[in-house]
Amino acid sequence: MTIIASLLRAAELPDSPTARLDVELLLAAAIGKSRSYLHTWPERIVSSEAALTFAGYLQRRRSGEPVAYILGQQGFWNLDLEVAPHTLIPRPDTELLVETAMALLPVTPVRVLDLGTGTGAIALALASERPQWQVTAVDRVLEAVALAERNRQRLQLDNVQVLSSHWFDSLQGERYELIISNPPYIAADDPHLVAGDVRFEPSSALVAGADGLDDLRAIIRQAPAHLQPGGWLLLEHGYDQAAAVRELLAQHDFEQIESRVDYGGHERISLGRLSC
Ligand SMILES: C[S@@+](CC[C@H](N)C(=O)[O-])C[C@H]1O[C@@H](n2cnc3c(N)ncnc32)[C@H](O)[C@@H]1O
User: What is the pTM of this model?
Assistant: First the structure.
């Protein structure tokens, strides 16, 4: 017979920087309760089935698998999203992109495109905050398209359309007031790719050529043909890529170019406006 308190005490995740949180999330999921339940009812008995499930989760976490993949879900903005190993686990950093987009455009019907939508995180957050906006979300990876569509349906966000597309290829003739993207932007030989949780995420979501800028270049080059006059392009990028992205935006006739810092003080997003 095992109780919650002893499972919590015995569980060890020596290599996780968030060990206590991870253990609580995994145990709460194994017994089908919230984290606060663990602290409210530490003497409750856990079924042997749930204890076995918890042991399996701990084993996977010890091998480095991210908690979000083990549980198949991750919070982003105010949404609970299904996640899967075919695409990136949404990061809190990307919420800066959502906040900035909402401040750029009016609360009136506008068309927005999210390139490389993954779980649908950005598109669904914007659609939930701005029911007036029509959001198109695309990804090249078919499993990611299916995942974003499942998230869209579960959240009942009818103002989002999820499509399969290699960047703009399936969007010929379409124009938007805002194009937003968190594309792959890591250099192929970056050592972070083989460390920590990131090594479980697919290279299709992370790697963009020798300098990490291949996808940003492709998007910035093609975006003017898909923006309305005065439309905005808003991009997430690496902490050391802001100057290069601003330069690319200037080369493609964008104006009002600027970068913004994240909560850690790094320039992590850049934007520009197509001339009117
Ligand atoms: C860094 S992840 C971002 C996912 C999501 N937008 C987020 O912020 O959590 C980049 C996404 O771009 C997609 N992607 C990569 N190359 C692409 C391409 N050529 N066309 C469309 N999507 C692409 C990947 O499959 C992946 O889902």
Answer: 0.95
What is the distance in A from the centroid of ligand 1 to the CA of 107?
26
> How many residues in total does the chain contain?
276
Of the candidates 89, 73, 56, 123, the residue with the CA atom closest to the CA atom of residue 199: 89
Question: What is the CB < 6 Å shell around ligand 1?
Answer: 87-88, 90, 94, 116-119, 121-122, 138-141, 144, 166-167, 182-184, 204-205, 215
Residue ranges of E strands in 77-175: 79-82, 111-115, 134-139, 160-164
pLDDT for the residue 184: 98
**What are 140-191's pLDDT values in tens digits?**
999 999 999 999 999 999 999 999 999 999 999 999 999 999 999 999 999 9
From 83, 87, 168, 179, give the residue whose CB has the most ligand 1 atoms within 8 Å, as the site to mutate. Answer: 87
Q: Which atom of ligand 1 is found nearest the CA of 141?
A: 25
